[in-house]
Structure formats: structure tokens, C-alpha cells
Amino acid sequence: MEKLIITAAISGAATIPSLSPYLPLTPQQIADSALEAAKAGAAIVHIHARRPEDGFPSANPEHFREILTRIKDNSDVVVCITTGGSAMMTVEERAAVVPLFKPEMCSFNMGSINFALHTSLKFLKEFKYPWEKPYLEMSKDFVFKNTFKDFEYLCEVTKANNTKPELEIYDVGHLYNLDHLVNEGLMSPPLHLQFVMGVLGAIRGTPEDLTYLVTKATTLFGASNFTWSVIGVGAAEINLSTMAIHMGGHVRVGLEDNIFIKKGVLAKSNAELVEKVKSLAELLHRDIATPEEARRMLNLKGIDNVGF
Ligand code: KMH
Ligand code: ZN
């Protein structure tokens, strides 16, 4: 079996600061947390930026620049920048980081979904920042828009910058969207699929759903034309990670998608979540890929070709 690529998603846009005091918010905290995760065994770090003053999801290139340069000055970890951004941003705003920083990888969301976060409201009595409560409330009526027009735009931008997409698949129909892009010649294998399971509005994190996604992707693209990884959002994180390690897939963990290290106990860092996956991999006799090995496995352009 190939070595296991662990991706650490450091801060995201869906987790709000009041949910965990351990969520990194400032560019320095985000970069340092990414560096710790890399030290713990993550080959890839998935990066969003936030406003340093209040943790609101940010599209400001200067916030990204600070994070990216700090990471690159201290590590050879692969950096994957989000183009998912947050609810408030247009696709052009979300994708601007790609031509600007020419990363080795960027996220590429493969379909529109309801992306509901309002269920977190019942766990929270107090909020650290005024934007958090309305942000969760409005998600009840929010569609995360990723249309075919958006795909075409992102295909152009990723191709022009030789940036490999982390193809975020939230549901089975997203595989068919991707198949259409491949058939139209807009996207070419080898593909790297990231199954995102457990968002309220999309597929759940059950074993049969993961098995089905892998089977369907194999039918559509052929086993040698794609690699895959899984994100279990929330409680599904460790269970789905275990399945992926066993099935030959790869794993993404991190405070972006799950704040708990075990039931009812907050993870103190992204590194702690990476360590947990590493110990599962050891138990299941699967070696961990270094950033250089991940670059070879995913055909990435290399750290010398990024724009930061
Ligand atoms: N946090 C994931 C559920 C992106 O950055 O483009 C989705 C995500 C999207 O990672
Ligand atoms: Zn993300």
C-alpha cells in the first residue's frame, strides 16, 4: 500500500472562535499551528486566513502572505490554500489567492450544497465576537455556491498556475460533476479527491457512504487515475480516518473540521489530531508520507515553483 498522506486543515471558516479556545486565529497562530502539525507528521497543510482582530474569515492577501511565508521559511510542508473562503465571498475573491501565490495545491469545491452550521448554536451560550451568532444563524438559509461556471473559472486558474486541485466531494453528484469536467477536457487525471463527509446538507460520515464514494469514483475514473482522502466532519473524523488508512486512502484532520480529540474533550492543537492519526496508522502498519513523498505521489510542481 502507498504511504499515508496526512493533511492538516488548520483553522477553516466553519469553526467559530467561541467553539474552541485552541482554534488558531491570527496569521502567526495559524502558521505556527501548521508548522506544529507538519512536525507531527502532516505532509500537507490546508490553509484559510482570518482577521487577526476577531477571527472572522478573511480573503485579505496580506493575511495569507504572512501565513504562507512563515510556513515556507520554516518547513518544506506542502501548502494547499483554500478557494472555498467563506459564505460572504464571490468565487473571484475566493480564487484570487491562486494567481497571487501560485501554491502547489488549492481546494476546488465540486458542487453546490446547503452548508448548515446553525446546530452549533445549541452548544453556545456566550460568544467571543459579535459576528459569530449571526454567522451561524444565517447558515440555515445558506447555499454554498459552486456552479459549472465557477468550475470553469477555477479550472482555468488552476491550470494557468500549475496548482493541483484538492477536489472537495461533498456528495455523490459531485463525482458526476467532476466526470463531466474530465469528459469535456477541462480537468485531467491524475485527480486528487477529498471526500468531505458529515456536513449538514451533504453526505453523512457512514462506512457505507465512504465505500460507495470510493467505488463510484473507481467506476468513473479508473483506480489508477485518482488518489483519495477523507475528511470526517465532526464526530466522524477518527472513524473515517481509520477506514481510509485501512482502504488505501489518505486522511485530512484538523480544527477546521473537528475540534474534539475524543468524545467531549477538545483537541488542544492540530498537531494532537495529526498524532492521533499517526498512531492509528502505526497500529494498522501503514507508513506516513513525508512532504517530498506526497509531492511525488500527487505529481506536484514542487516548493521552488510557488509564488510566496
Ligand atoms: N471545511 C471543509 C468542510 C475549502 O476550503 O475549500 C470544506 C473545505 C472547503 O475545506
Ligand atoms: Zn477549507
Task: Show the helix and strand layout.
Layout: E1 6-9, H1 27-40, E2 44-47, E3 49-50, E4 57-58, H2 61-74, E5 78-81, H3 91-95, H4 97-101, E6 105-109, E7 113-114, H5 132-138, E8 143-144, H6 148-160, E9 164-169, H7 172-183, E10 191-197, H8 207-221, E11 226-232, H9 237-247, E12 250-253, E13 260-262, E14 265-266, H10 270-283, H11 291-298
Parallel strand pairs: 1-2, 1-12, 2-5, 5-6, 6-9, 9-10, 10-11, 11-12
Antiparallel strand pairs: 3-4, 7-8, 13-14
This protein binds (5S)-5-amino-3-OXO-hexanoic acid (KMH) and zinc ion (ZN).
Quick synopsis:
Helices cover 38% and strands 18% of the residues. The chain is α/β, with parallel strands linked by helices. α1 (27-40) runs parallel beside α2, α1 (27-40) runs parallel beside α10 (270-283) and α9 packs across α10.
